[in-house]
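Quick one, tokens below. Sequence please?
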């Protein structure tokens, strides 16, 4: 399930959206880093960060948010931001050849 527009990321309570199990790999596409939050909300506490070009594996997806557990950091990262654009890009399983957003 995806939101109708990126602007809705601030207004919609993503924590209420359905959780979909997922194992896709993403590359951090925004620099210098993308925050990792405690829950799927831009108002949630920032508990970590992943630097640009870092690969992260999604455990699940809720709207435009992915849940991850990397190097002891468990949290949520936004894939598309209304102001900054695409934050995370889905990759092939080996981390190569970034897949275009239309194939997500």
């Amino acid at each position: 399930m995806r939101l109708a527009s990126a602007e809705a990321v601030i207004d919609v309570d993503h924590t209420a959206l359905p959780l979909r199990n997922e194992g896709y790999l993403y590359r951090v596409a925004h620099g210098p880093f993308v925050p990792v939050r405690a829950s799927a909300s831009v108002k949630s506490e920032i508990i970590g960060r992943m630097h640009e070009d870092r690969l992260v594996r999604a455990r699940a997806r809720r709207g435009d948010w992915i849940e991850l557990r990397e190097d002891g950091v468990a949290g949520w990262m936004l894939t598309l931001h209304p102001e900054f654009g695409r934050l995370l890009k889905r990759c092939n399983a080996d981390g190569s050849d970034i897949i275009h957003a239309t194939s997500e």
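The first helix runs from residue 8 to 11. The helical segments are 8-11.
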